[in-house]
Amino acid sequence: MSYRVVEWSTGTVGRHAIAGIDARDDLELVGVWVSNPDKVGKDAGELAGLDRELGVRATDDKAALLALKPDCIVHTAMTDDRIFEAVEELISFLEAGVNVVSSGPVLLQYPIGVVPAELVDRIRRAGEQGGASLHVNGIDPGFANDVLPLAMTSLSQRIDEVRCYEIADYSTYYQPVVMRDIFGFGKPLDETPMLFQPGVLSLAWGSVVRQIAAGLDITLDEPLVEKVARIPADHDLDVVSCHIPAGTTAAVRFEVIGTVDGVPRVVLEHITRTHPDQMPEWPKPNRGDGCYRIDITGEPMMSVEFNHNGENGDHNVSGMIVTAMRLVNSVHAVVEAEPGLVTALDLPLITGRGLCAPRPVSTS
Fold first, then answer.
1. In the chain, what is the greatest distance between 2 CA atoms, to the nearest angstrom?
2. Are residues 302 and 168 in the same domain?
3. Is 319 contained in some domain?
4. Which terms under GO biological process does the entry name (predicted)?
5. Whether residue 297 is found in the same domain as residue 152
6. Strands (DSSP E) along 173-310, which ranges?
7. What is the distance in angstroms between the CA of the first residue and the CA of the last residue of the chain?
8. Which CATH number is 20's domain given?
9. Distance (Å, whole) CA 325 – CA 23
10. What is the number of domains present in the chain?
11. DSSP secondary structure code for residue 24 in this structure
12. Is the pTM of this model over 0.85?
C-alpha cells in the first residue's frame, strides 16, 4: 500500500527527507511546507537539491496542506528553540486526523517522566480523537540510543550499565542557533547557555535514559543526574555555524545519568568538539570524525561503535540523512500503529524495505 505524505520543512534534514520519500515506491509526496517566503512556489526537487523536478510546489499554507488529507506528515522543522509552539503544531496535526513522524521536539521521543503527565495525556487524546499517531525519533535522540542499545541488551545475561555515546566533531554542522545559542560555542565560559541550564539536559536527553530504563523494566531514582564540562578554544576557530574566539567555549562533554539506589545504570554521554585536536584525553571515534557508541557493562561485556559518513565523507551530512531516513522509513509502521503517542518500544522492526539500488545492467 502506498501512503500520501507531506514534508514539513526543507532545511538540513527536510531536504534529505524529500529525497528519501522520492526513493520509496510506497510513498507519494503530495505537499511541502516551507517557512521561508522565498521558497514558496519552488519545486520540491529543487529544494531537495535533486537533478529533476518532482511536480510538487512548496507552500506556507498549513490549511491547504491539511486539506490534502495526507496519510502522514514528515515533520523536520526546527524545534529546539520553539519547543512548546512545536508541540502545539504536532497536536493540531493529530486533531486533523493526520499521522506524524517528527524529528522533534526530542523530549517527545519518550516523554513519560520528562514532561507533565497532562501534556502526554493531551497528545494521546488528540491522537485517539483524530485516529492518528505521533512518533518522534531520528538518530539521537533516536535509533542510536533507543533501538540499537535495547537490541544489544537482548544478548545480555546480566546488565550493570548501559552507556550511549555521541562522539562528534561539529565543525561542519550547520545549525547556527543550535551551535551558538543552545550549546554556547563561541560564548564565554562564565555564560551558561540554554542547554546547560539546570534541568534542560534532562528534558533534551532524559527521554533516552527513561526509555532504555523502561525497556529494561527498572525504576530510576529521581531526579536524573547531569554532569557538564566545557573547554575553551586555545586559538581562534571558524566553523561553518559560527566564529569561536580563543578563550570561549569550543568543546563540551555532558552526561545524563539514570541511577538506581545511587548506582549509574543508564547513561547518555555526549562529547562534542569543534576541532579534532581538542581534548585528546576524551574518548574519540575509532575511525572517522564522529560515531555513536554503545557500551554495556555486565555479562558479557559488549561494545558497538556505529560510524556513518556521506558519500562526500562528511559525517554531519550523513547525520542529517540518517535522521531523515529513520523518520521516512517509519511512516508505514506509524500510520498502521494504534492512534496516540508511539515510541520505539511500540513499533515493529523498521527496515529500508524497497531501497536497494537496482544492479547495473551489463552491456558486455
1. 68
2. yes
3. no
4. lysine biosynthetic process via diaminopimelate
5. yes
6. 225-232, 237-238, 243-244, 249-260, 263-273, 290-299, 302-307
7. 37
8. 3.40.50.720
9. 10
10. 2
11. -
12. yes
Task: Identify the CA nearest to 114 among candidates 240, 27, 201, 7.
Answer: 201
Do 23 and 155 belong together in one domain? no
Helix, strand, coil share of the chain (percent; to 5): 30, 25, 45
> Is residue 57 domain-shared with residue 112, that is, in the same domain?
yes
Report how far apart, in Å, the C-alpha atoms of 86 and of each of 5, 107, 285 are.
Answer: 19, 11, 34
Question: Which residue bears the cell 521558497?
Answer: 39
CA atoms within 13 A on the CB side of 162: 28
Q: State the Cα–Cα distance between residues 84 and 283, nearest whole angstrom.
A: 34
Provide the domain limits for residue 32: 3-137+330-342
| pLDDT tens by residue, the chain, 364 residues | 899 999 999 999 999 999 999 999 999 999 999 999 999 999 999 999 999 999 999 999 999 999 999 999 999 999 988 999 999 999 999 999 999 999 999 999 999 999 999 999 999 999 999 999 999 999 999 999 999 999 999 999 999 999 999 999 999 889 899 999 999 999 999 999 999 999 999 999 999 999 999 999 999 999 999 999 999 999 999 999 999 999 999 999 999 999 999 999 999 999 999 999 999 999 999 988 889 999 999 999 999 999 988 887 677 788 899 999 999 999 999 999 999 999 999 999 999 999 986 655 444 4
Instruction: Tell which residue, 24, 142, 135, 144, has the closest CA to residue 74.
Output: 135
For cell 546480566, the residue is: 158
248 alpha-carbon distance from chain centroid: 27
Amino acid type, 178:
V
C-alpha cell at 191: 555564560
Amino acid at 359: R
299 has which bridge partners? 158
